[in-house]
Specification:
This protein is α+β, with helices and mostly antiparallel strands. The chain is built from six helices and four strands, in the order H-H-H-H-E-H-E-H-E-E.
């Protein structure tokens, strides 16, 4: 970890890309110390350096109107104004107790966090913002967003990334909107 901290930003980015392209299913997961801890994947010829894609993404992210924030969601949306569109893609609520995917990152993202996020969605709704949010279709999430139930869309998402307890294949996901389409 201390070695990683001494790397330049470009070296760190290269390390993450290499790990992402060679680890199990491209999963991103860190342990309680914030260190990458995904097992290695089985790839015959991982495409680690995709120059065209890297350059295109770099060009896009460097546009003056693109701003990347590394903040808690409540903080990140504080300045949202009436008419703004916001999309939340939080760590998903686990679909079963065995699929405890709550250790998604060093801080975890448990049901209290899901409830806190719902309060932020309510606040943005009152402020006149347009909100879209995705999550898994669990009883807990359906219940949490019942105020928006006529604006919940169920989608069958093909999942490539799953924790152990979660079966691969189609898993119902929900899209919650605070406006009608
Ligand atoms: C389902 S992933 C989003 C994936 C992303 N949409 C993409 O396509 O790469 C959930 C993300 O929420 C982030 N996250 C966890 N806790 C957060 C918090 N309190 N505030 C903001 N983001 C958080 C995680 O680090 C993770 O990157």
């Amino acid at each position: 970890m201390s070695k990683y901290k001494n790397l330049s930003a470009v070296e760190r980015a290269a390390r993450i890309i290499y790990l992402n392209k060679t680890c199990y299913n491209g999963l991103f997961r860190v342990n309680s110390q914030g260190q990458f801890n995904v097992p290695f994947g089985r790839y015959k010829k991982p495409n680690i350096l995709d120059e065209d894609v890297l350059k295109a993404v770099s060009k896009y992210l460097n546009k003056p109107q693109v701003k990347l924030l590394n903040l808690d969601f409540a903080e990140a949306v504080k300045k949202a104004k009436k008419g703004d569109f916001l999309y939340f893609d939080p760590p998903y609520d686990p679909v079963s107790d065995t699929a405890s995917f709550t250790g998604y990152d060093a801080n975890g993202f448990n049901r209290n966090q899901q409830e806190r996020l719902k309060e932020v969605v309510d606040d943005l709704t009152q402020r006149g913002c347009r909100v879209m949010l995705s999550n898994s279709q669990t009883d807990f999430i359906m219940d949490l967003y019942q105020d928006y139930q006529d604006k919940i869309h169920i989608v069958k998402a093909a999942r490539n990334i799953n924790s152990k307890g979660l079966k691969r294949g189609k898993v119902n996901e929900i899209i919650v909107l605070n406006f009608s389409v």
